[in-house]
Specification:
This protein is an all-alpha fold. It has one domain. Helices cover about 75% and strands about 0% of the residues. Helix 3 crosses helix 7 and helix 6 runs antiparallel to helix 9. The longest helix is centred in the middle third of the chain and has 37 residues. It is globular, with a radius of gyration of 19 Å. About 30% of the residues are buried.
Length: about 260
């Protein structure tokens, strides 16, 4: 049985997709749908702005500092015996050595988990011929490009993954665990629900009305979002590193739009 609190958290998962879609539909009032679709990064920025306000309000009601979900959203890593110990042990009292060890662990996790997910994504994009006809990048006005350059990387890092993995994921896991689920079961179930919310947004932003494209977005992004959730749950203090990588990915998107001019 899903509690009222869990239903609220699940509703929050869908809010981001609804907001992106609403902003794109607003653009479509003045442009054709094909012309409105490339404005998805601007719609994402607007969505991040609204969600940032929502996050601040929700966290203030809890008495939780905003930066806590940016630094380490879970109070403790998921207990998986030696795996948890290996990833979370601090080798010395030296902050410099511990930071270097964390960078090494983060890089190893990315190579072991992230690379296969990205390779799978690339494999799908090469094996579905219809994707070659889909273009999500188009020339935009210079003011829109400047806005994207300044705000997209920053707001993506501050809001998107903190929304899904920093706020919703730990609270949903706690709700499920409080209703009798074992922690590993609660964590796995919560992650599956959060990944579904992330995939929904990946389909909507950008929303291309092509069955092949939608199918690719669903299949390709599930492994990537699972990897992100696993990394954060195993080592919560890696959340800042994930956010920095997300900002870099957003910057790469902006540069694609600049090159389209």
């Amino acid at each position: 049985m899903v509690s009222h609190g869990s239903k609220t958290l699940i509703a929050l998962l869908a809010i981001r997709s609804a907001l992106v879609l609403a902003f794109l539909l607003l653009c479509a009032l003045f442009l054709s749908w094909d012309e409105a679709t490339p404005w998805w990064p601007v719609a994402t920025i607007a969505t991040n702005g609204v969600c940032l306000v929502i996050l601040i309000v929700l966290l203030r009601r809890e008495g939780t500092p905003f930066w806590s979900i940016q630094r380490a959203p879970f109070a403790s890593p998921l207990p998986l015996g030696k795996v948890t110990q290996l990833l979370n042990d601090r080798p010395t009292e030296s902050r410099l050595v511990n930071s270097a060890a964390d960078v090494l662990r983060f890089a190893i996790l990315l190579l072991c988990l992230g690379f296969p997910a990205i390779a799978f994504n690339e494999f799908l994009s090469q094996t579905i011929p219809a994707l070659a006809q889909v273009d999500t990048v188009a020339p935009l006005p210079i003011w829109a490009l400047v806005l994207m350059l300044i705000l997209l990387p920053v707001t993506q890092a501050l809001v998107e993954f903190p929304w899904f993995y920093g706020y919703i994921y730990p609270r949903l896991e706690a709700r499920l665990e409080s209703h009798g689920s074992r922690r590993i079961v609660a964590s796995t179930t919560a992650l599956a629900i959060v990944v579904a919310g992330c995939v929904l947004q990946a389909v909507v932003s950008p929303l291309i009305l092509s069955p092949a494209y939608v199918l690719w977005r669903v299949i390709a992004f599930v492994p990537l979002f699972l990897v992100i959730g696993i990394v954060i749950r195993l080592v919560p203090r890696f959340m800042p590193g994930v956010n920095v990588l997300h900002a870099a990915m957003a910057l790469a998107v902006v540069l694609e739009f600049w090159s389209a001019r």
